[in-house]
Amino acid sequence: MEETVIANVEKIKQLNEAIEKYVRPDTFPLSIRVMDEEELLPPKVKRPKKDLHTTFTICQAVTMSRRYGWAMAMGAEDQSCPIAKIAFGYEDEVDFYKKGNLPNQMYTKTCSLGEKTENAVPKFSKQEAGTILIAPLTRTTFEPELFVMYANSAQVMRMVAAALYTTGGEITSSFSSRADCADLIVRTKQTNKPQVILPCYGDRIYGQTQDHEMAFTIPASMIDGFIEGLHGTHKGGVRYPIPTYLKYEAEFPETYQMLNKMFEE
């Protein structure tokens, strides 16, 4: 068993400072890693089953980390959400799941349509599965594989601009209203590309994500370009809070205009 060594401590610090300065999210930006079998659990990490004596959804653990500032570890024994158990490779896709019974009559009109929805959920193989580490950037004691920021749509737009600063082009994301934990972690890790995330129904119920919140993810491989992008786009005039254009003369009700004319006379 090997303890994970953080190679990018200074970069993570720079990323946190840049996000705080240029994005200003309401909750802590997060580091995430899926542990390999040979890795040791970092110190001061809470396990839901062992330390909190219950099981959680991944979205609950994400919210605890981004709102409480806790470092969390979610293994198979800590999971309560059956969809996440399959998406993260902890359980097999049994026929009841594969045939679309979960979305049927809730998200889709029929089981066959629900099957399409389940097929669209990104999934880890058994070989890719592992304990999920989640921590605020300032309390990261492991080597992150990706970063997650919850924010409003204007702040997410700000981060999209920063992510594209050194690449150009566009960011393409997928939305289904379900299993955003798989979008956050599985899809970002598998594609090694940034994602705009629409929080799912479960994230809003169990993770208590608010109506105004979205999420944005970047793989750790993009940390340098993203930091440069936050600085560069700010210098170029892309700001948050969004500056409103105010250099215009206001129009007033007729009686106000009459009074102004009296002043002029």
Describe the structure.
This is DUF169 domain-containing protein. The protein has one domain. 38% of the residues lie in helices and 12% in strands. It starts with a strand and ends with a helix. The model has no long low-confidence stretch (mean pLDDT 94).
Largest sheet: 6 strands, antiparallel
State the end-to-end distance. Answer: 87 Å
Q: Output the helix-strand order.
A: EHEEHHEHHHEEHHEHEHH
Distinct helical segment count: 11
| Global shape | globular
Unreliable sequence segments: none
- Total domain count: 1
Measured by DSSP, the beta-strand proportion falls in 5-15%
* DSSP E strands, number: 8
The residue fraction in helices comes out at: 25-40%
| Radius of gyration based on Cα positions | 22 Å
Q: For the largest beta sheet, what order do the strands appear in spatially?
A: 4-5-2-6-8-7
- The overall average pLDDT, rounded, is 94
Class by alpha and beta content: alpha+beta
Protein name: DUF169 domain-containing protein
Pfam family, one: DUF169
Keywords summarizing the entry:
alpha+beta; 6-stranded antiparallel sheet; DUF169; 8 strands; 38% helix; 265 residues; DUF169 domain-containing protein; globular; two-stranded parallel ribbon; single chain
Secondary-structure blueprint:
Elements: E1 2-3, H1 9-22, E2 30-34, E3 39-40, H2 48-51, H3 58-68, E4 72-74, H4 82-87, H5 95-98, H6 111-120, E5 132-136, E6 146-151, H7 153-163, H8 180-191, E7 195-197, H9 201-205, E8 214-219, H10 223-235, H11 254-264
Parallel strand pairs: 1-3
Antiparallel strand pairs: 2-5, 2-6, 4-5, 6-8, 7-8
Helix pairs in contact: 1-10, 7-10
